[in-house]
Amino acid sequence: MPIGVPKVPFRNPGEDDISWIDGYNFILINRLYRERLLFLGQEVESEISNQLIGLMIYLSIEDENKDLYFFINSPGGWVLPGIAIYDTMQFVPPEVHTICLGLAASMGSFILVGGTITKRLAFPHACRRICHGSGRTTETARNHHKVYVQRTGKPLWVVSEDLERDVFMSATEAQTHGIVDLVAVQ
User: Fold this and answer.
1) Is 106 an active-site residue?
2) 3-class DSSP state for residue 87?
3) Alpha-carbon distance 158 to 162, whole Å?
4) Active-site annotation holds for 46
């Protein structure tokens, strides 16, 4: 550990022993979660999916009236863990703001579109890629199409065509397409 980075004592609930942890990272991460800021900055897979689901549920129990802010910079990933994140976003009482910075591709785009309608934001230089992905059953693909139709307001034929051909969009194109509601101003 670098010189000058403090270690702080931390006791897990229900344990008698104290462990010393990197204070900077612990304090930073703890602070972000207390402010209800969640981050998906990697490929969607089971471990990160379960962590984000657990945090959304925990924060919802803690205060169901305070919004959650979900920052997304993801190249996509596994279908079922992504659907689990999406379903949890629909289940929890707080409104979930989704914010795209960098890239929201494939399953990242699916999670982005799952934010509370009117509270989905993209940074101006962020990029979205919608595609139908691989490894999906016909039923899963149909459900995926239905979600995009419902949340973007686009007809099924437009959504189906876009999902079949890997469409890359700028922030303003994603707004026109209904994937995000706002583009952040510079």
Assistant:
1) yes
2) helix
3) 6
4) no
